[in-house]
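Field reference: "sequence" (input) and "structure" (output). Example, Glycoside hydrolase family 97 catalytic domain-containing protein:
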Amino acid sequence: MLQSPHGESTSELEITEQGISLSVVFKGDTLVRKTELILFEGESSLLSDVEIIEKNTSKINTTWQAINGKNKEVVNEYSLYDLRLSNGNGKTFSLEVRMYDAGFAYRFLFPEGFTDVTDSSRIYFSGDFNFWAYNGENHNVGPVKLSEYGNNIAGNPVTFKTEKGMYFAVHEAAIFDYAPFVLTNTGNNTFLLDQEMSAAGGNHTSWRAFILGETPGDLIESDLLVNLNEPCKIEDPSWIKPGRAMWDWRVWGYTAADGFQYGLNTVSHKRFIDFAAENNVQYLLIDADWYGPEFDDNSDPTSAREGVNIEECMAYAKDKGVGVILYLNDVGANKFGLERILKQFSEWGAAGVKYGFMKGSPKEKVLNTRRIVELCAKYKLMVNFHDNPIAPSGDRRTWPNLITKEFGHSQADAKRSYWPETIVTAPFVNMLAGPLDLCNGWFALNTAFTSNRPKVFAEIPGTVAAEVAKLIVVYGGCFVLPDAPEEYLKKDDLFDCIRNMPAHFDSYKVLDGEIGAFISVARSAGDEWFVGSLTNREGRELKLALDFLDADKKYQATFYEDADETHFQKNKEAYRVRENNIVDKHSIINVKLAPGGGNSIWIRPVDQ
């Protein structure tokens, strides 16, 4: 039996003539009856007549500091089982298994000489579980039972709820060398895990990872994926600074009360920078078309189009203490040379890159993602990937300049908007993989679609209080604020919650939640806390215990919440702010959420 450090999770390792199988048991509940490991090299099975010729076991317990993570400090404690294998054809390779108290993971390691390896393993679940799955730039799949899903692919991550009320998720960690594996429902509560590899890749597979929890919030809090990645490879990562960004793209065409109309030009960018500098916003994201039509082969990212003066903008931003993030896509990178472009961005003084519309096969996307991230690190550039990229896989530990990815249905993107149930599902599915950029923080919910803004393609269903709460609930390395500065100032008392948020939080704690229904999250920033709650289309009342506060302190709490008449379709912008509420560790607060609504609480010591 393989066992975690404190015995919370176990696995039975079984070797037969046909191969190897591993079970997954958490707190006495069998989640996976067996994972039947099936590897082929060409037509030959690698795991038939296999035997263990060497076995090494050890216990690891270390702590490391995260640069871009849910938690500033990460504990990495597990039991390691390193098994050297030999098969009937005389081939030798290794199976490495890590047992965490709330996680299980394994990978294969190959010496040189292995070619055309295929993983066709099968995961046999112990029941007909409900599950939810990643679904590209759409609402997630689920809840659906295994028996009702048919012979369909389930996108990673996949989150399960057992018949006994336990939760677990299947994903992979450290996707660097091969295409991501594919999970296909094959009936009888079984998933086929399919992945093709080749000698051109690395010498080990990605980690096949199972995140385990008693509640769905346990899965979100997990640091399993980052712990399965290698330590940071950037010698001095002090230049990597997560934060919030203003964004020009969705604001084009907006006319302010003083008659100013925003467009793709430097005068607009300076107006964004002024607002950012005055309101604790760290960056400006200049999106597509700044160097010409984004899909035109002649658009050169090392020179700006008419009306956009990048050098002037960069100098102005630097003087104001604001960083600039520049858009780039495959068309320009391939035509004019990726490294040449990134070097130019760096010389201009850019802080990062938003990379979009990567082309190629899944494996090519994996390799290109790694190449882009490493080159960005060379030139001290952070990077945010958009447009259905390769899934996050804890890789931000190794390359923390990879600050976020779209990886989901971004609000008002893909020419449609999501409904409230999406934002209370994505944290339990998409966000398990890593930091998300979902374009939250809309304030002009009533008028954005009808006010001559060509990049706002659909009406946005939601409440303005929920838009603030999303910035607490959703974990990301760069939050891109999609609205006009003037819209934030119109609701200055509500924007004050965003203004007082840190550039990056220190911790992430799920207070309560149910997949697809609601979620409440508490995040610390030094001595202060921010609590965010969201609901689906149903209004609800929650009771939240503040037992995470220090016992010897009194706190002042400001509530940013839906009004009594708020509704995500009928009355989106109604809200209220309640100040001067005194709370402590023993307080239990009532939070009322309108249909599709949200609630945020800023909590700080009274003496502040």
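The radius of gyration is 25 Å.
DSSP finds twelve helices and 34 strands in the chain.
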